[in-house]
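CORE FACILITY INTAKE
Project code: CF-77B
Contact: R.S. (postdoc)
Sample description: multi-component assembly, two entities in total
Requested service: structural model of the whole complex
Turnaround: standard
Below are the sequence entries exactly as provided by the requester. Do not edit them.
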Amino acid sequence: MKKLTLLTLVFGLVGLVPLAHADRLADIKKAGVLRVAAFDANPPFGFVDAKSKKIVGLDVDYADALAKKLGVKLEIVPTNPANRIPLLSAGKVDLVFANFTITEERAKVVNFSIPYFASGTQFIAKKGTLTSPEQLSGLRIGVDKGTTNEIQLREQFPKATLVAYDDTPFAFTALRNGNVQAISQDGPKLIGLLANVPDRDKYEIPPFAISQDYIGVGAPKGETALTELVNTTLRELEADGRAQKIYDAWFGPTTKTPLKRIFKIGDKT
Amino acid sequence: MDSSLISTFLADGFLAPKYLGWLLDGWLMTLWASLLVVLASTLLGMAFAAARESGRAPLAHAAGVYVALFRNTPLLVQLFFWYFGVPALLPEGVLAWLNGTHALAVGSTELLRWPSFEFLSAIVGLVAYSTAYVGEDIRSGLRGVPASQRIAATALGFTPLQALRYVVLPQALRIAMPPLLGQYMNILKNTSLGMAIGLMELSYRARQAEAETWKTFQVYGVATLLYIVAIAALEVLAHGLQRRNARRSR
């Protein structure tokens, strides 16, 4: 009889351990704190604000909205790209909001929410010269050597002439000189580049992308309840217009980096 | 290479024909560009050497300044200048024309096509740079011909130009041949810097193939072999010429 009780106890404990870990959501509510990993040097997604010395950005705004929904305090843990998965697996953070591109490889070790941002292969061209992807076939296009942008363009538009440069500023100089008619990179990178160009009024980023990388929230593997809550919250934010507001705060027409929003939450699940 | 390296090499698979084709295309571009630069810089180099040895101060000075300018700055910077800098000075219409496609065609078959601006600026940059070196090698050859040769030619009634063309230059080129061939090898290797301004030569193509296949070892292995083959061909040529020279001077 005694043996049996012990056995039940052992089995009970074994059963309990994964159960206790599998509900991070309950833990967060109990602790009253949501710990989120965010970038501290990747504007405008996550970076240290020069005035307040706090980490701010688009990712942080989304994390903040989620903490409000849960009714808990938000604690930001600074991270770099390489630390995102280790922080999650080691249980140091509950979620990752750090321009986290959804890939099959990563999905094996973390849970991803539905995407809340997409960064795609886009273009800079002189104003009014490029309006649709079909035009690309007849153009000379500057790309960065070895990027996925170059490979995508070659595969999708074999008739376009590609000239590969060592980095984006070189490609942009070639565009200015007229050696190429468009240059290609990820949208957010292009807008960051354009922000620092003195004659930026002459150029534009046409509102289309030829491919998309989807950015999602990372949660610990197997935390279904937490992932579901993130998904519901993201959909709510889109439905009540708060997602658009967050976007406009960082990429809206009045910001230094105006980029037309071509992806909305729920466009891809 | 030990056996484990060989087995990973084979397990990884070799490059697909498509990528080998890219590398071959790049190699042909390297050879074509090298040939043009060698020919142009040799012709210009002769004129340059003649200017330096002309004994006319302004001409010799100008040539001296040229050497200082082109030998004392890195080739990469010069290529950036020709490709990114010069267009800022050209009128917009000229540049648009240079960048456009102009082809000479009979019916639907294209005979000649105006080269890309990347190609033009790479060739111009390499020729300008190489002329400074090739010209100095030719000049050292000129100086290696004893002055008595020229004087004797003049005594025989040759004009100074004739003396240069028929007496001095043939001997000077023979003396200059070994360093010149070394210079031509440099030119061939220097074309690889053209990749920085979009010249689709071997190194550019290798980088492209590497980015798509991730087969770094295979890609650069093949590229290295292709460079070696080209340089070896030049070396064989050099040996042949030297043997011929040795026979002649006996």
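Facility notes:
- The longest strand of chain B covers residues 109-113.
- Chain B touches chain A at residues 83-84, 87-88, 92, 95-96, 99, 116-118, 196, 198, 204, 207-208, 210-212 (CB under 8 Å).
Invoice: internal transfer
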